[in-house]
């Protein structure tokens, strides 16, 4: 097993800041398209279902390449792989704005998904290894703030089209350029542990197993249940992110600036509060219960159900925004809690593969078909009713997390793990049988 490295406090702050910056740009580039529904639909003559298909194109690349990148991360330096991924999605974002036809636009979205798969596969794994297990929840929470910050920035950039930006295509250029700088910084980061192809091939069990390592991960009951929970959450979250701006404009009579500002500000405040609360509370509770992060996510999902229902049902703007804010806070709190649960279930050299498996499964079963299906249903019964029905997916997310927490509490040694011997993480709760 390659050895771990020691870094100065200043270098750790720099490394974590670069990783958080990459996660910020990740969601900025992903989300800017959702703020441009009217412009893109008009420019390419898309139906509502086809606009939903833009997310599916992204998801196809995201889902298909996550396992490949998880496998590659067990063999080559993850910081450099991550840097290449950032460059790919940033250039693809710029290409989206240059697309002459909808085929090129869909292919660009696919490439954005290919690149951004590296962020969710390698980002949390690197953060988890740069810090100690006692601070893991808080650091993953800070990393997760990139989601609301980047998503809000994406809505803001898209919202500036018309009042500030003359051409909607320029929004993609503004979104894509920062990633080029971050790719250069990431390429120069040092790995939190020694990694070389020779060392990985000779001593890394995960590397020797190759893609078979994913099958062993699926023998863990807690892992499977956490994946199921995130799948239910994605079924709700992605349509909300992708269709909410148009919903506010059409169903609630807001202008584009009002819609992007209201939803963006709500997501920003909710994301920061939810992530920080989950990181702080999760680390404190984890000192008493090893299933603390999973239980925290389960409670967060349960809170989100009535809050989101009221938010989409109410026609009173203040009530709607406050309720959606509470629901979004709960949703964002579940993200670092779930990531910390997964990070603690596996040894360090397995983390990239564990996150890759989660990405593949949740997006294959969750948002691969959900956006175009939601778009078709919304055209049939109305967007408000479609949102109300899809909110019920959060019930499944909550129940699955509660079941995962119980399974984690029942884990006993010896446990199934891809690694054995001195290289295994002492702080990780090893994988248990299904």
Describe the 3D structure:
With 434 residues, the protein is mainly α. It has a single domain (9-409), classed as MFS general substrate transporter like domains (Growth Hormone, Chain: A), CATH 1.20.1250.20. It contains 19 helices and no strands. Helix 1 (9-31) runs antiparallel to helix 8 (169-187) and helix 17 crosses helix 18 (383-390).
Descriptive terms for the model:
single chain; 434 residues; mainly alpha; Growth Hormone, Chain: A; 0% strand; disordered C terminus
Query: How much of the residues is beta strand, in percent?
Result: under 5%
CATH superfamily: MFS general substrate transporter like domains
The string of secondary-structure elements, in order, is HHHHHHHHHHHHHHHHHHH
Please, how many domains?
1
Beta strand count: 0
Query: What characterizes the major β-sheet?
Result: none
Output the CATH topology: Growth Hormone, Chain: A
Number of helices: 19
Mean pLDDT: 83
Low-confidence stretches: 195-207, 413-434
The helix fraction, in percent, is: over 70%
């Amino acid at each position: 097993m390659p050895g771990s490295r020691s870094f100065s406090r200043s270098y750790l702050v720099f490394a974590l800041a670069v990783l958080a910056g990459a996660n910020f740009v990740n969601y900025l580039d992903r989300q800017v398209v959702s703020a441009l529904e009217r412009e893109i639909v008009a420019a390419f003559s898309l139906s509502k279902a086809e606009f939903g298909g833009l997310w599916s194109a992204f998801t196809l690349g995201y889902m298909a390449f996550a396992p490949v990148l998880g496998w590659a991360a067990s063999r080559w330096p993850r910081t450099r792989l991550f840097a290449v991924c950032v460059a790919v999605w940033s250039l693809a974002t710029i290409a989206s704005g240059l697309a002459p036809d909808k085929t090129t636009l869909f292919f660009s979205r696919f490439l954005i998904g290919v690149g951004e798969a590296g962020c969710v596969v390698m980002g949390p794994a690197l953060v988890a290894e740069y810090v100690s297990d006692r601070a893991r929840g808080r650091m993953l929470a800070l990393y997760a703030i990139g989601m609301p910050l980047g998503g809000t920035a994406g809505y803001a950039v898209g919202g500036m089209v018309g009042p500030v930006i003359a051409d909607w295509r320029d929004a993609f250029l503004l979104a894509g350029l920062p990633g080029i700088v971050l790719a250069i910084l990431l390429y120069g980061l040092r790995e939190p542990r020694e990694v070389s192809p020779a060392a990985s091939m000779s001593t890394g069990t995960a590397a020797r197993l190759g893609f078979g390592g994913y099958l062993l991960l699926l023998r863990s009951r807690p892992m499977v249940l956490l994946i199921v929970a995130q799948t239910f959450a994605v079924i709700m979250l992605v349509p909300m992110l992708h269709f909410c701006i148009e919903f506010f404009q059409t169903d609630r009579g807001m202008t584009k600036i009002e819609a992007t500002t209201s939803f963006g500000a709500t997501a920003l405040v909710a994301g920061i509060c939810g992530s920080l609360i989950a990181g702080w509370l999760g680390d404190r509770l984890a000192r008493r219960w090893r299933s603390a992060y999973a239980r925290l996510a389960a409670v967060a999902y349960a809170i989100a159900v009535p809050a989101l229902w009221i938010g989409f049902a109410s026609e009173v703007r203040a009530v709607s925004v406050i309720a959606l804010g509470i629901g979004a806070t709960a949703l964002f709190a579940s993200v670092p809690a779930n990531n910390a649960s997964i990070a603690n279930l596996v040894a360090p050299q397995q983390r990239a593969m564990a996150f890759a498996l989660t990405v593949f499964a949740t997006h294959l079963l969750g948002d691969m078909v959900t956006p175009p299906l939601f778009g078709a249903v919304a055209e049939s019964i109305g967007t408000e009713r479609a949102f109300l029905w899809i909110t019920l997916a959060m019930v499944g997310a909550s129940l699955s997390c509660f079941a995962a927490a119980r399974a984690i509490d029942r884990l006993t040694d010896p446990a199934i793990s891809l690694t054995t011997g001195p290289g295994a993480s002492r702080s990780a709760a090893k994988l248990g049988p299904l």
